[in-house]
Design goal:
Helices cover 34% and strands 16% of the residues. By secondary structure, it is an alpha/beta fold. The protein has a single domain, classed as Response regulator (Rossmann fold, 3-Layer(aba) Sandwich), CATH 3.40.50. It has a five-stranded parallel sheet, sandwiched between helices. Helix 1 packs across helix 5 and helix 2 packs parallel to helix 3. The protein is globular and about 35 Å long.
Length: 145
Amino acid sequence: MGERKTILIIDDDPDVLEAMRLPLEANGYAVAVAMSGEGGLAKVLECEPDLILLDIMMFTPTEGFHVAHKLRSDDPNSPYAKYRHVPILIVTAIHQVTALRFHFEGDEGLLPADEFIEKPIDPAALIEKVGRFLNADSGGPVDSA
């Protein structure tokens, strides 16, 4: 089996962090966590993740938007330039608490992300979506289902 893939979870809710961390670790992933956008950006540089799970509404209602835009910046001098192609999965309850609706086709400029995962977290759906992004080019963790 190849090297363990690292997933960074950026979310300000400790219960949500645990709800994602536990099934990911149980499926063989290394998990790093950050509880704010700024903390998440610092953690990207520290742990060099293979995938990022990002909340939108943290200390501000749009904090996750700003993080996603910094990570996907076209600026070659950005400290995050080498992470520009790391998949970002948005994990959010934004559809439940606001009237905002996003669709991947055409919303890339507004929210540069690869996929959405709705809260509350369904562990099986989380593992399936993460696996789709991380296991395509490697043996990846074995699905215990």
